[in-house]
Design a protein that fits this description.
By secondary structure, this protein is an alpha/beta fold. Helices cover 29% and strands 37% of the residues. It is built from 7 helices and 16 strands.
Length: 240
């Protein structure tokens, strides 16, 4: 099985070495880059397109929170875990859809618990593909191959380690990742949240409840979410 690629962004040498040592023993993950400040993180993310970033919030040059906001503009499927000596940034971290928030000193078991939250099977031999010209999505569900017209997909949702494709008629369950589906589908689909990929053609309204935003669709009972970070981008796309 293909390993998930990881970038570490940490300016403290001891913390960086500890994270690297812990990750070497995590069989499903592979370190592909190490950054010491926010600008280096952005550059490595752009060049390497990693699956995961472990990011210290207190990075020099550009702090980790701001750097991650830039990273997901070019790598929207990036999943990230913040590491910090302070607890007060947790709310903001989860507002921008962080997978987890670890307060230092970093313990091995705590890091592994955080990695479990983002770990899901990376396809190796599964025949999952998309033909954008024919607008067909071929999805392996159990022992069957389902051929789905992408125009019928209302949204795709990640719940724990499973992905659910919601169409007008039914819902399909898959082990594929949202990030890979985002690469397969055309520009009608938008990653509104780390757990949702929506079809812009079906959006009927966006409703806010405090700091939570819900996306509703034409003649469809289920709803999706949009993160605060993606809200304005979604509004702009809906204007086109």
């Amino acid at each position: 099985m293909k390993k998930r690629t990881v970038i570490i962004a940490e300016d403290d040498n001891n913390s960086s070495e500890i994270l690297q040592e812990f990750l070497k023993k995590a069989a499903d993950f592979e370190i592909v880059g190490v950054a010491e400040n926010g600008e280096e993180l952005i550059e490595l993310n752009f060049n390497l397109k990693p699956d995961v970033a472990l990011v210290d919030i207190g990075l020099p040059v550009l702090d980790g929170m701001k750097a991650i906001k830039e990273c997901i503009k070019t790598n929207p499927s990036l999943q990230y875990i913040f590491t910090t000596a302070y607890e007060e940034f947790a709310v903001e971290a989860f507002d921008i859809s962080a997978a987890d928030y670890i307060v230092k000193p970093i313990k091995k078991i705590r890091l592994y618990e955080a990695l479990e939250k983002i770990k899901s099977p990376v396809p190796s031999e599964e025949p999952v593909a998309a033909d954008k010209k024919s607008k067909k999505l071929i999805v392996k569900t159990g022992t069957a191959l389902q051929v789905i017209n992408s125009d019928t997909i209302v949204f795709i949702e990640k719940i724990n380690r499973k992905t659910f494709i919601h169409t007008r008629e039914m819902t399909y369950e898959s082990n594929e990742t949202l990030g890979n589906y985002a690469k397969m589908l055309n520009d009608n689909f938008f990653s509104s949240h780390r757990s949702y990929l929506i079809n812009l053609n079906f959006v009927s309204q966006i409703i806010s409840d405090g700091e939570t935003y819900f996306i509703y669709f034409h003649d469809f009972s289920k709803y999706a979410h949009v993160s605060k970070l993606k809200y304005l981008e979604l509004v702009e796309k809906l204007k086109r």
